[in-house]
Amino acid sequence: MVPALRYLVGACGRAREGFAGGFLGACGSASGRPRPLCGGGRSASTSSFDIVIVGGGIVGLASARALILRHPSLSIGVLEKEKDLAVHQTGHNSGVIHSGIYYKPESLKAKLCVQGAALLYEYCQQKGISYKQCGKLIVAVEQEEIPRLQALYERGLQNGIQGLRLIQQEDIKKKEPYCRGLMAIDCPHTGIVDYRQVALSFAQDFQEAGGSVLTNFEVKDIEMAKESPSRSIDGMQYPIVIKNTKGEEIRCQYVVTCAGLYSDRISELSGCTPDPRIVPFRGDYLLLKPEKCYLVKGNIYPVPDSRFPFLGVHFTPRMDGSIWLGPNAVLAFKREGYRPFDFSATDVMDIIINSGLIKLASQNFSYGVTEMYKACFLGATVKYLQKFIPEITLWQQPMKVSDNDIDCFLWHCFAFTCSFK
Questions:
Q1: Residue 322 falls within a domain, yes or no?
Q2: What is the radius of gyration, based on Cα positions, of the chain?
Q3: How far out from the chain centre does Cα 353 lie?
Q4: What is the distance between the alpha carbons of residues 51 and 75, in angstroms, rounded to a whole number?
Q5: Which InterPro entries does the UniProt record give (predicted)?
């Protein structure tokens, strides 16, 4: 079994020699030619690092940045299968900086979300990354939702979220003039940001600190070396061999896997358990026409139903000034399938055989049917949105046109993890 991250002790030195095919060194270029890192390198038949992070999304890049800032003497590399960084889940989300109100008090999720939001605002300030602390209203539109809203408010207070208020109809109007509701939670510390921009800033910090990024490197296998590479003076100092789909390889002492939608498969390659399995769901968003964006000032969310694993359709402002309405949640037939007809036989078989989908579907059958209906019939989604902002009509929504049109129907994908057996 390959250790996901063994205890860091006694490892030192800088990254070795560059690797053809997209190696980005601290002072190198993306020319594709092997090039040693600044600060000295030495020849080797393979690239070798003390630590390798698999996955160039925001989690992998944040992990790489944190490691190299805490352990600057280590050589650390990031492997990314695409030619660019942060192009999948990091670049396919609503961009909301959540406050942490939804999570169970004292849970790790709650603590990380509350602390992470504060750290993210601080980081964006330091780096000059644009963000908007536009706030969020969680709105009850039915009388039966009010007890759940009040319970959520108490949970937010227990999680230490600052500035929370329970507000009535008149205050809802002050915050969101076109929004209707009986009662709402005002969460002023919720914001929005372009997470891909944040991730690329993490990558820049990482490389400036001496880290290396290897793109176009799709990991195919992770194994323990049986012998030292030929002509290598490293011996067995770097016992882990990571191979890509082109037959190229690098060696390292420790591996950290942050592979997003493929995290279960990469975990299994590393010798660890693949559970929880990934079940991919696609989220469909509507884009409000630009001349109607005045209807929404900040994030507007429904009261979540704890019986279901999603937050529901909501109104989300974006950094470019657009307003997204959604998402729904429908089963995707490809892990990185951002369009409704994207299909992968491998992914579909994996869903059927390994993911516990039948149990997941049986527990959420009515919700799933509703989501499929809303995905097929645009009017059903608009009718739901009108509970919050009655001025939104089907006429004001964009047509389902080509992906190059600015007022298109947007297809995005996120993942729901499932550990049912």
A1: yes
A2: 23
A3: 25
A4: 7
A5: FAD-dep_OxRdtase (IPR006076), FAD/NAD-bd_sf (IPR036188)
By the 8 A CB rule, do 304 and 311 touch?
A: yes
Alpha-carbon gap, residue 330 to 327, rounded angstroms: 9
Tokens read off for 342: 């994207």
Q: Residues 212, 80: one domain?
A: yes
Does one domain contain both 304 and 391?
yes
Round to the nearest angstrom and report the end-to-end CA distance of the chain: 23
Query: In terms of residue numbers, what domain contains 286?
Result: 278-420
Q: How many CB atoms within 10 Å of residue 306?
A: 9
Contact by Cβ (8 Å): 238, 48 = yes
Predicted local distance difference test score (pLDDT) of residue 64 = 98
For residue 9, the Cα-to-chain-centroid distance in whole angstroms is: 31
In a domain, 186, yes or no: no
Q: Which two tokens stand for residue 217?
A: 């490197």
pLDDT tens-digit readout, 392-402: 987 544 443 33
Position 79 scores a pLDDT of: 98
Looking at 227, 247, 270, the residue that finishes a domain is 270
pLDDT, residue 309, reads 67
Q: Is 238 exposed, middle or buried (0-12, 13-18, 19+ CB in 10 A)?
A: buried
Question: Three-state SS string across 131-161, please?
Answer: EECCCEEEEECCHHHHHHHHHHHHHHHHCCC
For residue 53, CA distances in Å to 75, 79, 198, 280 come to: 11, 6, 18, 23
Which tens digits make up the pLDDT trace of 139-198? 999 999 999 999 999 999 999 999 999 999 999 999 999 999 999 999 999 999 999 999
Nearest to 195 by CA among 299, 122, 86: 86
Whole-model pTM? 0.84
Dihedral of alpha carbons 204, 210, 67, 221, sign: positive
Q: How far apart are CA 155 and CA 251, in angstroms?
A: 46
Q: Could you report the per-residue pLDDT of 343-394, keeping only the tens digit for each?
A: 999 999 998 888 778 887 888 788 788 888 888 888 888 999 999 999 998 7
Look up residue 276 and give its two tokens.
């929880």
